[in-house]
Amino acid sequence: MADVAKVGAQVSTAGTTSSYWSGKTKFEKLGNGTDFGKIVENTVKQQGFHKRRLENWKAQWVKKQESLKDLNTKMGELSTALKKMDSIGKFMGRVTSSSDSSCVTATADSTAPTSPYKVEIKQLARNDIWTSSSGFASEKDIISPTASKISVTCGGKTANIDVPGGTTVEGLVKMLNATTELKGLVQVEAIKTGSEFRLKFSSLKMGEANRITFNSSTTLSALAPASMTNLQQGQNSKVKIDGFPEGADNWIERDTNTITDGSKGLTLNLKKATSPGSVIINVNTDTEKIIENVREFVKQVNVVRQALRDISKVDTTKDKGKGSILTGNYGVQLASHRFKDITATKGQGFNNFDSASGAGDRYNTLRTLGIETETDQSSPNFGLLKIDEEKFEKAMKDNPDGVAKLFSADYEASTSSPNFTIKSLIKGVTKPGTHEVSYTVSGGKITSATINGKAARVNGWEITADDMSGMGMAIRVDNQNDGTYSGTAGIKTGKTIEMIETLKDMTNSKTGILNIISENYSGIIKNIDKKLDYEKTRLENLEKTLKAKYARLDAVLSNYGGKMKMLQGQIAKLGSGAKK
Question: Between these two residues, 137 and 427, which has the higher pLDDT value?
Fold first, then answer.
C-alpha cells in the first residue's frame, strides 16, 4: 500500500512543460480520472515537429513555384500586347484628309509616302442593269406556254437554260437565280411597277467585264435581246493619281470604287466624278498613334519588370538583408538581365550615328528617345522604365518614322556599301543584326567572299552565307569591277520583335528557363510529399500504439484504485470497531 501511495504521489505531482510544442500538460488523477486522450494528443503533437517543418518547407516551394507561374503568365501577356505593334504598319500608320470628301476619301498604311496626292476621277464603277419590255399582271402568269430556251452571258460565263412550257414568272425567276453559271454574277427579280410586274436583271459585280448579254439563241420572246432594255451600263472606275497615267484617254481602270493599288499604301474610296477638276488627298504620319504605342510599350514592359523586382528584391529598410521569395534565384536573375539588355542595348541591325556626316541611325537605343531605367533606389519606380518627356517630344518632332522603326522594324534590310545589296533573306532563319561582308573580284568574276569572317558560297554574282548567323541571306554584288570590297549588311528588327522573341524563348514550355526551374520545384515538392506521407503514417501508428498502451494502463490503475477503495473501507470498519 505504501508503494501504491508513493506511485500515486509521483503521478499527481509530475508534469511536462514545453512552450514550443504543446504548452503545459499536467497529470493529477489515477485510473479513469486521468485524461489519457490529452496525453496521447500532446505526445503526438510533440512528435509532429518534423512533419510541421516539412509542411512549412513545402509551402515555401509552392509559393516559389506559384511566383514563377505568375511571372510566366505576365510575360505571356506582355508578348500578346507587343504583337499588336510588331510591324511598322501596326506601330505608326498614317492619317489622311481630303479637300472634298464628297468626291473621294482615303486611308493609308505606313508604306504610303507622306505627301499630297492629286486625284482626278472621270467616272465611277457601276454594275449592269437590264429590264424586260414585257409586263405581267401577276407573278403567277405563264411566261411561256411552250418549251423555250434562254441564253445569258455575264463575267465570262454563259448559262443556257431550258424553260418548260407553262413556266410562270415566279418560277422563271427562281430558275434563273438557281442556275450555277449565274450564281454570284446576276440577280433576277420580278418587281411590281404599278399595275404590272417587270423582270429586272442586275450584275452583282461592277465593271465592264461583268456586263450582261442576252444571246440571240434565246427563244423565250420576253427575254429576247430586242425585248430587253439596258437601264445602266456596267463600267469601270477611271482615275488619275498625280497625273498618272499621262494622256487624256489613259486612266487607271478598276471594276470597283475602292482603289487599293493605284499608289503604294494608299486606298481611295471614290464617291463621284471630279473631272476635269481634281481633289487633294493629304497623307501624314499618325504621330498620336506612335506616342500611344510607345507609352503602351513602356507600360507593359514595366508590368513584367515590377513582377521581377517584387519577387527578387531585398528589403534594405525595416529588416536589412531580408530577401523576397525568389531573391537570388538564377532563372529570375537571368530573366531580369535579359530584359535590361533589350531595353539598354542598341537595336538589332541599327548603326551608330555619325553626327558629322549624318550617317547611321540617330535613334538606335531607347535612351536616345528619352526612355531610361529609374536608378534612384528611394523611388517607388526604382528599376522601371521612365520617359523623359522633353527628349521624347524632340525625337518625335525630329523623325517620327525613325522612332517607330526602332520599335517595330520587321527584318528591314540595308547595307553600308553601294557595292552590294541584300537580295533576299529568310525571316526567322537569318539572324537580325549586322553582318560583315567582304568579296574580291578578279578577271570578271568573284574569286573569294566571306560573310561574318567565314567563307561564303559564290554563284555568279551572288553570295550566300554558310554560317548559322547569316543563313538564308543572299547578297547581290553590284560593283563587278576588279578589286576587294567590304561593308556591312544590316537586318533591323525593332525592340518589340526582339522582346517577343526573347519572351518566346523564356516561356517555352519545354526549354524556357522559368518552366525548367518550375519543373525542378515540382520534383522537390513531390519528394517532400513522400516524406510527409511517411511522417503521417508514423504519427498515425504512434497514436494507435499510445492509445493501446494507455488503455491497458488505465485498466491496471482502475483495478488498483478499486482495491484501494476496498482496503480503505475495511480499515475504516476496523477503526470504528476499535472505538467501540
Answer: 137
